[in-house]
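Friendly challenge for the regulars: who can give me the structure tokens for this chain first? No prize, just bragging rights.
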Amino acid sequence: MKSWFSWLPMTMFLAVIWVLLADMPLGMGTLAFAGAASLIIVLMSRRLRPFLARPRRIWVILKLAGIVLADTFQSNVAAVKIILGYPKIEYTPGFVSVPLTLRDPHGLAILAAIINYAPGTLWAGFPESGEYVQLHILDLPQETDWAAFITERYEKPLKEIFE
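First reply, four minutes later:
Bragging rights claimed.
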């Protein structure tokens, strides 16, 4: 029974997006087409996903979302200061390798998105071994600080959620 309902949230989400984006009057025809089209898309795309994510610990997810929002805001402010040159700040761009213990592909995808959300940081490389991730940092005062920052603030909660 669980497998039948695993596709329902995405189907409903796609149907709502279709109705909101369609430049048509809201009626039974629009709703029927949105529902049918989204159901077909979801059922056909299930074969593209070898396995589904199984996130756990909703409180850790909410805490991580708050941390990401705060860090992204702080990073935006720092990037604007660097770009506008206020005050005259010397910055040193560089690359840093962060060792990873996270192995879940969904967790790694979210980690990549989190790192790329903040201006000034970029996911620059990921070897097949998955032992580390290479990041480009706009202002890199010390490598060890960044590795510990990424590991403690992002990787640790993602391991709790996905592993």
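The chain has two domains: 2-48, 58-162. The first strand starts at residue 94 and ends at 99. Your move, everyone else.
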